[in-house]
Amino acid sequence: MNPSVVIEPRASGTPATGCPASGTPASSAPASVPASRAPASSTPATSTPTRASNIEARRMFLRMARPHADPNPYPLYARLREIGPVVPVVFPGVAPRYLVTTFAACTALLRDENIGPLAEEHFHETNPTWNEQALTSTLFGSMAFHSGAEHRMDRAMLAKHFSPRRTGKRREDMVAVATSLLDQLAVLGADAQPVDIERELAVPYSALITGRLMGIPDDQALRLGWLARQASATLELAPSPGQRQQAVQAGDQVVKEMTALAAERRAQPREDLITDLISQCGDDEDRLVSNLVLLFGAGFDSPTSIVGMGLRLFLDNPGQAQLLREDPTLADTATEEILRCEPAVQIMFRAARRDVTLAGVTIPAGSIVLALVAGACHDPALVDDPDRFDIRRRPSGGLSFGGGAHYCLGAHLARLSATVLFPMLLQRFPHMQLAEEPTYRSPGVALRGFERMPVTLTPTNPH
Ligand code: HEM
Q1: 362 - beta bridge partners?
Q2: Hey, whose CA ends up nearest to atom 15 of ligand 1?
Q3: Residue 27 above 50 pLDDT?
Q4: Which residue in 119, 127, 191, 370 has its CB near the most CB atoms, within 10 A?
């Protein structure tokens, strides 16, 4: 889950974009991801928006602010990079939003101490009933929305559970979870029956790993996983009223279950993360529950998305899949490349605490700023030929895990779970193919991923 925010639809009813679908070749290298068609070095160092670019920026913002995912948002990000590193979006009578489009500007933004998480006034502006919604009001009390000393204290409380050494010890369990899910997949997909990767692999793999890390029983972790997936629409750029309502209900349930689980552990302590947090939070129930909800949501949502989107990259680029099958030691760089090519968190939301000048543009205090980190990961200033999926590429240091004070706490764990899964998955099912075009999650704009991804595991015509 992107522990970010809610920006109310400014653009409901906006027409579909008509963006081109991913242009991916059917065979080996040079492999590609959705092509942004960006000129190689077109990113200006500073921006001086013209009237024409303002109008275009507004149009592009409206294309993003809708309740359905764009199958290929990368050309739009590329065009915004061309307009400038910081693009103001101005609508009459509304405070401007600022889109930060390039790798350099996004990096500077995430590290700038004058820019932080959204504050209460932004929530009031964008989602007036946020305080009555269990998920948003609970998350607002978590470290994702804290700054300075308060934020450091929360991170320090959790940090020991996410050290590289401690994370490394989870490998064996990840292999066991993956093995058992792949065994079940093999049964379900016998005789070329289509199986939904999201349902049978991505959701359970991530829910079980996060649940076991925290000390949540497997059954409950699976249930919470499905609920968290629905609830995440609350954190989107522009959910529809129906999506928001469904998300609010699912979010209520997540908070309720997590509160009950915390109470259970208080009564009967165990050797687990929840019990450890209880002892660190003392009587501060709000701090405890908000960080538990954040942790499960964040630990579950993006890793789930990466399973489907990573697999899609391999299926579209069989030469890269073959490379990983033949040399599983490429799993580390393959994971980095998946994270760069298809960032699960595409957009991060921030607010300027004071007037800030970024890439030559002054952003007034109080403004909402959108870091388009997925566009930053496709910036030609970051890597050569950014739309090519190349698992042998040197890790780029992209922004898929964010940056600065709020850099993803679970990055080691997320990397490990992907490096364990992908070689096993590709080796076990070398003939896997898409059974039909996957369905993107909705809204799926800030948090990109699939809702359904039917594949066949065996050749449809083995004879
Ligand atoms: C592929 C997997 C993952 C991706 C792409 C990802 C991405 C991110 C991003 C972009 C942020 C920063 C959000 C912002 O600054 O607005 C973040 C924060 C966070 N992530 Fe992850 N994440 C992943 C997996 C995990 C896992 C496995 C956990 C824990 C089990 C986790 C826990 C957190 C937490 C607690 C934060 C908030 C940190 C803070 O506010 O200081 N994430 N993640």
Answers
A1: 357
A2: 406
A3: no
A4: 370
**Ligand 1 atom closest to Cα of 154?**
41
Please report, for residues 141, 289, 414, the alpha-carbon distance to residue 284 in angstroms, rounded to integers and kept in the order given: 11, 9, 29
Atom of ligand 1 nearest to the CA of 144: 40
Residues framing ligand 1 (Cβ under 6 A): 2-4, 143-144, 155, 210, 213, 294-295, 298-299, 302-303, 306, 344-345, 348, 400-402, 406, 408-410, 413-414
pLDDT digits (tens, 9 = 90+) for 31-86: 444 433 333 333 444 445 677 788 999 999 999 999 999 999 999 999 999 999 99
Domain segments of the chain as ranges: 51-456
First-residue to last-residue Cα distance in the chain = 44
Where do we find the tokens 């020991």?
160
What CATH fold (topology level) applies to the domain 51-456? Answer: Cytochrome p450 (1.10.630)
Rounded to 10 degrees, the C-alpha dihedral 70/76/81/82 comes to 180
CA 224/CA 450 separation, integer angstroms = 18
Which pLDDT value is given to residue 460?
A: 64
Beta-strand pair 361-363/356-358 = antiparallel
